[in-house]
Amino acid sequence: MKRPNSLSAFLVFHLLIIFLFHSSVANADALQEACKSAASSGTEVTYEFCLQFLGENPQGQSASLENLFTFSLDQLASNATNIVNSVIPKLLSNETLRSAQKCLETTCSDVFKGVPSDLAGARRYFKEKDYRNAIPYVSAITTDSDTCEDCFRDDLKRESPLAREDDIFHKMASISLATVTSLL
Ligand SMILES: *[C@@H]1O[C@H](CO)[C@@H](O)[C@H](O)[C@H]1NC(C)=O
Ligand SMILES: *[C@@H]1O[C@H](CO)[C@@H](O)[C@H](O)[C@H]1NC(C)=O
């Protein structure tokens, strides 16, 4: 009687190992799939930047594409909040950046304040697994940092004091877009 039991326990154990191995391989693939797609999306996002960004998700290597997408949305939300609540006010208090004030106060503040509403749209469709309709919301977010940069370049004809933040934000949004596109 003992033997068949331990044999089946042995089998179950092995099947479990095989299952866990396969699911972790499948999920490490999610990170690679999202980043390959991001790196070939025609933006400046490199595969390494993407791996570094999405690799910081709380599930790590076992994250699914869905996990990676929600992580990217969370990061975009906190980035936009930081830019509005801390980065822009700090730049506005800097006397030497007087000539940048107009874009900081209007265009850039406005676009980043609008991010939560686009994120809400993306989350709503994502929750319904309607990835196709989530895409336009994420796509709109990718243009926000461009609108801010264009203000400095075209209207004020000066260097952007938000160049670094806008660049990172744009890359993060492009990765988010590539990730939701991979879910289709
Ligand atoms: C935006 O997020 C990126 C990645 O997490 C981080 O490196 C960067 O400092 C953040 N920027 C702001 C303004 O929060
Ligand atoms: C003000 O802006 C200038 C130009 O970008 C920069 O060099 C300087 O460090 C800033 N000062 C403060 C207090 O942040």
TrEMBL record:
One of its GO terms (molecular function) is enzyme inhibitor activity. Keywords: Disulfide bond, Signal. Residues 1-28 form the signal peptide. Gene3D superfamilies: Invertase/pectin methylesterase inhibitor family protein. It holds the Pfam family PMEI. Residues 26-179 form the Pectinesterase inhibitor domain. NCBIfam families: PME_inhib (TIGR01614). Belongs to the PMEI family. This is Pectinesterase inhibitor domain-containing protein. It comes from Rubroshorea leprosula.
